[in-house]
Structure formats: C-alpha cells, structure tokens
Specification:
Strand 1, helix 1 and strand 2 form a beta-alpha-beta unit. This protein is α/β, with parallel strands linked by helices. A seven-stranded parallel beta sheet has the order 8-7-6-9-10-11-12. It has a five-stranded parallel beta sheet with strand order 2-1-3-4-5, covered by helices on one side. The longest helix has 20 residues. Helix 1 packs across helix 10 and helix 3 crosses helix 5. The protein has two domains: 107 residues, 3-Layer(aba) Sandwich (Rossmann fold), CATH 3.40.50.720; 178 residues, Rossmann fold. The protein contains ten helices and twelve strands. The chain is elongated, with a radius of gyration of 21 Å. The chain is 29% helix and 17% strand. The structure holds NADP nicotinamide-adenine-dinucleotide phosphate. The site of NADP nicotinamide-adenine-dinucleotide phosphate has 29 residues, from helix 3 and helix 5.
C-alpha cells in the first residue's frame, strides 16, 4: 500500500552516480510500497534517510536531526564509520550485483595463478612449456573474511574443486569450507596455503594483518590476492616476502589510491596492480536493498547490515 506522507530521502554521492540511481531507486521504492521524495537537496532537518557514499558531498551529519539511518553505498565503511558527526544508525552495502562482480574478479585472478596462464601469455618465445598445473583439488586456498563477499567467493571456489579454508571473527558454517574463527586460528588458516585471498574490512584489528610472520606461513610459491583494502598488507613485508616464498601478489587496493605513478608495485615483476576495480555497487540491485532497508525502518524492524561502530565494520 502506498503511504500518504512522502519519506524524504537525501542522495549524497558524486554527480556520476545520480543518473543511474534516479532511474533505479523510484521503482524499488514503489515495489516496497514506499512513497518517497528523493532528492539531492533536501533541507537537513527534513531528511528521514540518507543514501551516502563515503566520498559524497555530505561529510557533516550533525544537522540531520531527524534522520533515521544512513545507508552506505559501499561495502567498505572505514571512511564513514569513523566520521564523528555520524551518530545515526549506519548500514553498509550488501548488494547481490556487487557480490557477483567480486566473485567473478576473484575467480578470474585465482584461475590465472592456478593455471599459470602468465607462463604462456608472456612466454611466446618458441619454448614448448608443457608442464601441467595441478587440479584445483590439490591447490589449497584460504580466504580471510567470510562475510558477504568472502563467503560467496568461498562457495564458488569449492564448486570449482579447490579445498577452501575461510577465517572470520565469528564461527561460520559453509558447506565444504573449513571455517576457522578467532585470532588463535589465523595461523592455521594461513599455514601452507597456496593462494590467499583477502576480503576483510579495514579496522584497527585487521590493519597490517599480513605482516612478515604471517606471509612466511604461506607455502613456497604462494599467490596473494587482495581485493579487500590496501593496509591489510604491510607493504614492506610483502616486498620482502616476494623475494622469499610469495610468487606473485595481485593487488586491487592500496594505502594511497590512485597508486602513485612512482610506487614500486607498478614495476615489480611479481606484482599485478589493478585500479580498485574488483567490484562495484550496481545501482539496479543496490536500489532494491536500500528500499528494503527503508521499508524495514518505516515498519519498525531492525535495519539490515548495520555497522557495529565498536568493531569498525
Ligand atoms: P563483511 O560482510 O562485513 O565481511 C567481513 C568479514 O571479515 C566477516 O566475515 C568478518 O567476520 C571478518 N572480519 C572482520 N574483522 C575481523 C577480524 N578482526 N578477525 C577475523 N575476521 C574478521 O564485508 P564484505 O561485504 O564481505 O566486504 C569485505 C571488504 O571487501 C569490504 O570491507 C571492503 O573493504 C572490500 N571491498 C572491496 C571492493 C573492491 O572493489 N576492491 C569492493 C567491495 C568491497 P564476522 O563474519 O565474524 O563478522
């Protein structure tokens, strides 16, 4: 049933995002039975919900005195969760389109390393390199982070036959995945892994989690794939490990983005840089999630995917 008083929703993201969201959000609101006045310009005191990108125009949330929730457009919340003016409930983005994109990116880069595709692309030099890669079932993969993205990647990797170990803060139960949890199981998660994928959020507890000791736990010739956040890896430790046991690092995220032109990662023969393109929120599917959360707010139900400020994600 359509409500009589419009809910005032403020959209706070870069100009480029507006055209696709102004197309996708209204039908999503209607599908949830919501009458919404969506704008980029509502007066702060009149706003019921804010849809926000962490780098959007609104950085001071204090004037939004009646705002019931801030709905983040990104999965990563480290920049917005630490904003001291934001005291309203904050929900992070869990979007099937974003998840699908991340699974595709992770599988693509995992298969590149697993199959040794580079040897053949780069080695068009008349040498018949006919060594066979092992089957996936003989290539242990570890995923740090079993949230929306990590769990979906873990499922797809097990479907392909990889033995997958996943690590998270709370204990999970995912079919065919060895699920470990808590700091005391991190070592077991990493020991002898041949491919490690980082899908942790950036928090105080996860910054530099891949340090020199932990990188040394991986198998000789291991690959590390980081679509999580740059500071999850200590860069100097990685540089060192690339001379030891790590065969290659594929990095999508960095401490400074865009990665400065002179950064050593660009030229390192064992590093692949991708420009933070592992995945992105897709307006079509994300709008459905946003509308569902607003409907829940209006019905007095708990918001989905609330950020725990004390944990930072
Ligand atoms: P999520 O659902 O919040 O999952 C985070 C996972 O990390 C959870 O399993 C959580 O454990 C675990 N975790 C957090 N802190 C931990 C700790 N101290 N020790 C052990 N495990 C810990 O997040 P998501 O949606 O999967 O996204 C993960 C990250 O991917 C985002 O934060 C963002 O930084 C990154 N990302 C990157 C791109 C890109 O294009 N490169 C795109 C989207 C997202 P619990 O389950 O027990 O809470």
């Amino acid at each position: 049933m359509i409500r009589k008083t419009p809910i005032r929703v403020l959209f706070s993201a870069g100009d480029a995002a507006w055209p696709e969201y102004i197309a996708a959000l209204p039908p999503a609101f209607t599908a949830q039975g919501l009458l919404v006045d969506l704008s980029r310009k509502h007066a702060p005191k009149t706003v019921d919900y804010i849809i926000a990108a962490p780098n959007g125009p609104i950085q001071n949330f204090k004037p939004f005195t009646r705002c019931k929730a801030v709905l983040n457009l990104w999965a990563g919340v480290e920049d917005i969760a630490t904003n001291k003016t934001l005291t309203q409930p904050l929900a992070r983005m869990v979007d099937p389109g974003l998840t699908e994109g991340m699974v595709e990116w992770v599988i693509g880069h995992t298969m590149r390393h697993h199959l040794g595709i580079d040897d053949h692309i780069n080695g068009q030099d008349g040498i018949w390199r006919n060594a066979f890669p092992p089957l996936a079932q003989h290539r242990p993969v570890t995923i740090l982070g079993l949230g929306a993205l990590g769990a979906a990647c873990a499922r797809m990797l097990t479907n392909l036959g990889f033995p997958v170990t996943g690590w998270s803060r709370s204990q999970k139960d995912i079919a065919n995945v060895i699920c470990l949890s808590g700091n005391d199981r991190l070592r077991d998660s990493l020991k002898d892994a041949q491919i490690v994928i980082l899908l942790l959020p950036l928090t105080d507890a996860t910054t530099n989690i891949m340090n020199i000791e932990r990188l040394a736990l991986l198998a000789d010739g291991a690959f590390i794939i980081n679509p999580g956040r740059g500071p999850l890896i200590n860069d100097d430790a990685l540089l060192n490990a690339l001379d030891q046991n790590i065969a290659h690092a594929t990095l999508d995220v960095f401490r400074t983005e865009p990665l400065p032109k002179k950064h050593f990662f660009w030229a390192h023969p064992k590093v692949t840089v991708t420009p933070h393109i592992a995945s992105t929120t897709r307006a079509g599917t994300a709008s459905l999630c946003i509308a569902e959360n607003i409907r829940r707010g209006e019905d007095g139900l708990p918001f989905l995917h609330l950020v725990d400020r004390s944990e930072g994600y």
